[in-house]
Design a protein that fits this description.
heterodimer; A: alpha+beta; T-fold; 8-stranded antiparallel β-sheet; two-stranded antiparallel ribbon; 7 helices; globular; B: alpha+beta; Sufe protein. Chain: A; 2 domains; 4-stranded antiparallel β-sheet; 8 helices; elongated
Amino acid sequence: MRVLETVMGIPMSIDVRDDGDHRMILDDAFGEIRDADTTFSTYRPNSEISRLNRGELTLDSVSDDFRGVLETAERFSTVSGGTFTLRDSNGDWDLNGIVKGWAAQRAAELLVSRGLRDFCINAGGDVVAAGHPESGRPWMVGVRSPESAETMLAVFGLSDRCIATSGAYERGNHIVDGRTGREATGLASVSVIAADLTTADVLATIVYAMGEDGVGWAAERYDCGVLAVTDSGRLIDGGDARRWLANASGR
Amino acid sequence: MRRRNWQGTTLFLSIFAILGATLGLKFYSSAAQPALTSSLSVGTTGSGTGQSSAPSAAPSASSSAAPTPSSSAAPTSAPAASTASRTINGDTVQTRFGNVQVAVSFSGHTITKVDVLQVPQESGRDMEITSYSVPVLTQEVLSSQSAKIDSVSGATYTSEGYIQSVQSAIDKLG
């Protein structure tokens, strides 16, 4: 069964292949994502992050979830030398670069904890591929071409892996290199495959911001696969990305 | 070039088949429409083939004026009847790639069919763009492109437009 919902203004779907009626579980999974939006949305005046930015909360009084996300984001910021940034151009806290991936990862963990094994979550292009859609094959996840939504750049066969893609075509995706404050240049699209979606999502953002050098940077530091396209249309890969590419014979 | 064109068409259809989320899919309305959440039920799961055939009808549908099937069926059916059949045109949603509009057929609150009335016509442009990048693609990446897909990584305005148009049709069902 498959459920579609719009959260954070983004269409999200969960496709479950385990037998049975799991709509209650799926609703709880979407609840995780809705909760994340309630906590972290900079567009909601009553979110924790908005209250923190107005000085109504301090870092000592935020929720455990908030602190956990903040700590994860800070680790990525440190290891990337500040490329990944936790604040917007006004200096306000802005965790939008991590929240979508983190929330969908949480939803996936909820599904697993409730006994589901074979499902695919697509949170606006960030994908968790768990188990198998049918016996004997992985989830086939296409990466859209940076030039056209109707064309696939590549197709990966994924099982218990996550993939996130950053590209200039994404809504609101004006990725800034936190080291320079300038908009990222050099890459048209970056996809990162990792064991969890938080890592895949943040690394895709960091590599995109770093440009070509980011591909090797990520592959050397994380257990991941990277496939990037430069502005001139050249392909670069890093880590184990090629391992996951679908075969010519399909499946 | 022949092969590229074929692939592009296939992949285009695949996107709509997968992200389209039409027949056999369960739509939960967004938070703004809580009343629909529990009442929408699912068509049979054997509908995948019918779903993927829908986009192929699009070029002819969009080149002529889009039909308005909603006006004929709607008024006669009693609102309370759960099996009443209606077809409702979704809003035309503007995307970066062009307009997207669908017509959703309902039996009661069950979606029985989604027809694509308008989608961007981009195949010519796709071929041009793809042909410049092909020489630098590794053979492995190139060959992976022909695989059948279940999902797509990377946000797409077109699929968002499609989903929004479907959602608006659901909303109009009330």
